[in-house]
Amino acid sequence: SAMSKEQRVLQYVQQNASRGDPDSVLAAVDKFGWETEWAMNLGDVKGAILDRFVKETAPQTMLELGTYMGYSAIRIARLLPETAKFMTVEFDQENAAVAREMIEFAGLQNRIIQITSDTADVIPQLKTKYDVETLDMVFIDHWKDVYVRDIKLLETNKLLRKGTVVVADNIIKPGAPEYAEYVRTCGKYDSTFHESRFEYSNDDIDGLEKSVFRG
Ligand SMILES: O=c1[nH]cnc2c(O)cc(-c3ccc(F)cc3)cc12
Ligand SMILES: [Mg+2]
């Protein structure tokens, strides 16, 4: 059967990037996104902002909700030391399969723990099954309608500690208004909005919310 868009991106990466070179993989995905087919990767413009947050935080324990094709997982993992523990969770099996190959091509499979499951099932298991004490950083980029559900699950499962940095994509497009309202008004976070551009667009606005847990 015909390839999915995600498989077309993976094929383009395998034919145009260098195996074991994460930056060349990111560049190939972004070139495809700008020039051939839009896809919902974080992208180069918002990606540069996330890079800065990851470098500033230097997390030893990191969680990503929403792997998709693995673009932001590669973006994050390329900045982490070998000793860091980084888990990424994806519900869609087909996307998870593409991500596994993309991550392997980038040579980062030893630095990324890929979990194919529902985040609502995984979050309560992180302490027992994944040996997590607390998280230093979280990147939320899955489905806007479950952002609030999942950050509350992180709270009730005692996975956040004073200073944990939670970053969320798509605050403007497609928009996560309930999430923005929650983190900005619940009193548990110091939250800032970082305006940027929607992925592979010169015109549309989007942005990342960065919320530091007060403990
Ligand atoms: O569903 C999404 N998960 C994660 N990130 C996304 C993302 O960055 C963009 C979009 C998106 C935005 C506008 C549109 F017309 C179609 C899709 C969806 C997701
Ligand atoms: Mg997104």
Could you describe the 3D structure shown?
This protein is α/β, with parallel strands linked by helices and 215 residues long. It contains ten helices and seven strands. A seven-stranded mixed β-sheet has the order 3-2-1-4-5-7-6, sandwiched between helices. The protein is globular and about 45 Å long. The protein starts with a helix and ends with a strand. The mean pLDDT is 98. The structure holds 6-(4-fluorophenyl)-8-oxidanyl-3~{H}-quinazolin-4-one (7JD) and magnesium ion. The site of 6-(4-fluorophenyl)-8-oxidanyl-3~{H}-quinazolin-4-one has 10 residues, from helix 9.
Keywords:
binds 6-(4-fluorophenyl)-8-oxidanyl-3~{H}-quinazolin-4-one; 215 residues; seven-stranded mixed β-sheet; 10 helices; alpha/beta; binds magnesium ion
